[in-house]
Design goal:
Residues 115-140 are annotated as: Disordered. The chain is of the alpha+beta class. The protein contains four helices and six strands.
Length: 140
């Protein structure tokens, strides 16, 4: 059974999920005036999900959502989860699923309404250039 995915990417230029037919993917960016309102609501959802306690992972997820530039919506079959994970990592995207959870590119739960449980290994993605800048700062 296909799973509905809302993927939120921080990349300036859209990286299309090429494992799906282009017609099967809905996309919007900041040219769509409703995206800002949608993202504001999504930040609110992230801040209140589960127990609502502010944690470092929750804060980083909220900051990711605030930096989103591309929003994709599509359905994906179980057989394509590996391709979804690879694309989400390249697109620097987190995914909101129909169960109310927000997942990292590898499907690990960042935020949920209690079920499924939050995965301690889940990580908000960062693009390679951001990771390089951080490494340079730590060396300085």
């Amino acid at each position: 059974m296909p799973l509905l995915v809302n993927a939120y990417s921080t990349l300036r230029e859209p990286l299309w999920p090429d494992f799906l037919p282009r017609a099967a993917v809905q996309h919007r960016d900041h040219a769509d005036p409703e995206l800002a309102t949608h993202l504001h609501g999504f930040v609110g959802y992230v801040s209140q999900a589960g127990d609502g306690q502010m944690t470092q992972p929750r804060y980083h997820l909220m900051r990711h959502v605030q930096r989103v530039r591309q929003h994709f919506t599509f359905e994906v079959d179980d057989a394509a989860f590996g391709e979804l994970a690879q694309w989400a990592e390249q697109a620097n995207a987190v995914c909101f699923l129909a169960d109310g959870s927000v997942r990292d590119p590898h499907g690990r739960v960042l935020i949920s309404q209690g079920e499924p449980a939050i995965d301690e290994q889940a990580q908000v993605p960062y693009p390679p250039d951001a990771l390089q800048r951080r490494a340079q700062q730590l060396r300085s």
